[in-house]
Design brief:
By secondary structure, the protein is an all-beta fold. The protein is built from no helices and ten strands. The chain has a four-stranded antiparallel β-sheet, with no helix packed on it. A three-stranded antiparallel β-sheet has the order 1-10-9, with no helix packed on it. The chain starts with a strand and ends in an 8-residue tail after the last strand. Bound molecules: FE2/S2 (inorganic) cluster (FES).
């Protein structure tokens, strides 16, 4: 089961911008890439580094710690296999940004 949590407004996240939000102690980074909103866990699956300040190349996010790259749309690394970054469904509804998170991570909102 998942729950939808409001994490701010679309106005706060213009194209090219990112925003860090917290849901039940979990840190989630939102990206607006050319008008598409994406949400990923702010914890690199390699060694847990924060991804909030990682460089974006298109939809590829580079971890600032060791340089692994993840597609923020899918959470996957380029090529087959590899580590997978947790992504969250996110949508804009009536100007609000709404993220779907597993129930265990959804007891509060940012
Ligand atoms: S912690 Fe992200 S690449 Fe190592």
């Amino acid at each position: 089961m998942s729950r939808e949590v409001a994490v701010g407004t679309l106005d706060e996240l213009a194209p090219g911008q990112r925003k860090l939000v917290f849901v039940d102690g979990r840190s989630i980074v939102l990206f607006n890439i050319a008008g598409e909103i994406h949400a990923v866990d702010n914890s690199c699956p390699h060694n847990g580094a924060s991804l909030a300040s990682g460089a974006l190349e298109g939809c590829m996010l580079r971890c600032p710690a060791h340089g692994l790259r993840f597609d923020v749309r899918t959470g996957c690394m380029p090529g087959a296999g590899g580590l997978s970054l947790t992504t969250f469904p996110v949508r804009a509804e009536g100007g609000k940004l709404v993220v779907s998170v597993a129930d265990s991570a959804a007891s509060s909102q940012a």
